[in-house]
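4.2 Preliminary Data

To establish feasibility before requesting continued support, the project team ran the inverse folding procedure on a target of 354 residues. The structure was first converted into the token representation described in Section 3, and no sequence information of any kind was made available to the design step. The complete token record follows.
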């Protein structure tokens, strides 16, 4: 019966790979924790909705009313919300707040186009967790949903692992929704930039998305940088930049928009100089070889490193001078140079022209 469930659900439809993973993880939890994990999983799987909205009226209690707050310390802190009876089990004193102390007006979900799908996001979270072991080789995990069952099959599934994975998944979804760009569902016009860098904000009993930074210069720079990464790596697999951003956001004690912007800019510079201008990292078509990103971005203990070391790189030696045919220029190279032109215009030329 167990093997049958792994292949078919009650409607005789083949299960998605992530549904099989979920069933196996739930086997390690008791009924109460299993209900909580199941709800967490379902909320996180809504990739086109802010996680605060997925949790409904207690979203602000779980995640705070602004981005300086994250009220959860572990899986055991997460409450289970009984939607049918409209009650909540809040056992942990860390929350320090009753469910009726805040009532947030719930509107229709604020939807956007997700950067990746749930299966590939699960792999990003798994790789991040495994990288916390300094002797783990990050190249051993491929960020491709085709490998989902294989990669999870390498893990020793215990109750503690399931709880840690669930909590990390929730936190990663929180940062993905609030610190990464989204492509809005609104019509793309010359007057409206479809790329939005917005977080979910609660104030005066209402909640809605607002710009991540109140500093317009930082807001614009982060939006350009993050959208540059996204349009360069539009397929939903192999989004290494998302992994590195998640790693930075989760492991940094105090995240500000200023230091986050410095990190993302450093990551872009690192990509350009130490990968796309470093011949040893490129194949015959000037595409980064497998493992090149991890090799350059991660230290030996798997911590992040965005300090540029290849400062004397020669662009012409790899991509030519424009007069002869080359082996090709990857999309990231064009987008990075386009970003640098925008940065030059925004920082210097705009003031002199207008």
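Position-by-position output of the design step:
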């Amino acid at each position: 019966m167990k093997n049958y469930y792994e292949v078919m659900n009650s409607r005789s439809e083949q299960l998605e790979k992530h549904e099989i993973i979920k069933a196996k993880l739930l086997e390690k939890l008791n009924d109460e924790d299993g209900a909580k994990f199941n709800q967490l999983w379902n909320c996180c799987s809504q990739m086109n909705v802010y996680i605060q909205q997925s949790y409904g009226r207690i979203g602000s209690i779980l995640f705070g009313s602004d981005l300086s707050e994250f009220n959860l310390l572990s899986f055991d802190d997460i409450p289970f919300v009984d939607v049918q009876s409209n009650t909540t089990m809040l056992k942990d004193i860390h929350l320090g707040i009753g469910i009726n102390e805040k009532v947030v007006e719930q509107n229709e979900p604020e939807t956007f186009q997700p950067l990746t799908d749930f299966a590939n996001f699960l792999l990003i979270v798994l790789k991040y967790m495994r990288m916390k072991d300094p002797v783990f080789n990050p190249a051993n995990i491929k960020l491709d949903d085709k490998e989902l069952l294989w990669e999870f099959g390498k893990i020793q599934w215990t109750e503690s692992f399931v709880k840690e994975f669930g909590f990390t998944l929730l936190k990663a979804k929180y940062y993905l929704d609030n610190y990464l760009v989204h492509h809005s569902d609104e019509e793309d016009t010359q007057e409206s930039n479809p790329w939005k860098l917005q977080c979910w904000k609660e104030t005066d009993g209402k909640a809605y998305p607002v710009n991540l930074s109140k500093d317009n210069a930082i807001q614009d720079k982060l939006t350009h940088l993050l959208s540059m990464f996204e349009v360069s790596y539009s397929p939903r697999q192999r989004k290494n930049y998302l992994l590195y951003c998640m790693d930075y956001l989760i492991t940094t004690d105090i995240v500000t928009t200023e230091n986050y912007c410095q990190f993302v800019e450093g990551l872009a510079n690192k990509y350009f100089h130490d990968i796309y201008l470093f011949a040893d990292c490129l194949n015959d078509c000037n595409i980064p070889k497998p493992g090149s990103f991890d090799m350059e971005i991660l230290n030996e203990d798997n911590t992040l490193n965005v300090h540029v070391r290849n400062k004397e790189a020669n662009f012409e030696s790899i991509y030519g001078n424009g007069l002869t045919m080359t082996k090709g220029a990857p999309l990231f190279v064009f987008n990075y140079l386009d970003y640098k032109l925008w940065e030059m215009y925004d920082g210097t030329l705009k003031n002199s022209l207008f």
